[in-house]
């Protein structure tokens, strides 16, 4: 099952926004790596509530957007690491 297919099209803007925010958090020395996913989760919910109101649809799609952002980032990162290790 493709996670992005479950996400409502109105929430697609959250995924790249969360990638940028996650990158900024990763480069922030005082933010531990383990906490980045929780920051992204909270930010995704807040942005969904601001854009679409406090309702079940916003909550579910905020969760899905955070999941798609983290899953997409990890897929790209691990694929690149695998390709780099094969070159060595």
What does this structure look like?
By secondary structure, the protein is mainly α. It has one domain (11-87). Helix content is 80%, strand content 0%. It is built from four helices and no strands. The protein has helices at residues 3-6, 14-27, 33-52, 56-87. The model has no long low-confidence stretch (mean pLDDT 88). Pfam families: Phage_holin_5_2.
Keywords:
88 residues; mainly alpha; globular; 4 helices
**Broad shape:** globular
Strand percent estimate: under 5%
Helix content: over 70%
Q: Could you report the average pLDDT, rounded to the nearest whole number?
A: 88
Termini, distance in Å? Answer: 33 Å
Topology as a string of helices (H) and strands (E): HHHH
Counted by DSSP, the helix tally is: 4
Radius of gyration: 14 Å
Number of strands: 0
Q: Kindly name the structural category.
A: mainly alpha
Largest sheet: none
What's the number of domains? 1
Keywords: Membrane, Transmembrane, Transmembrane helix
Protein name: Holin
Pfam family, one: Phage_holin_5_2
InterPro entries: Clostridium_phage_holin
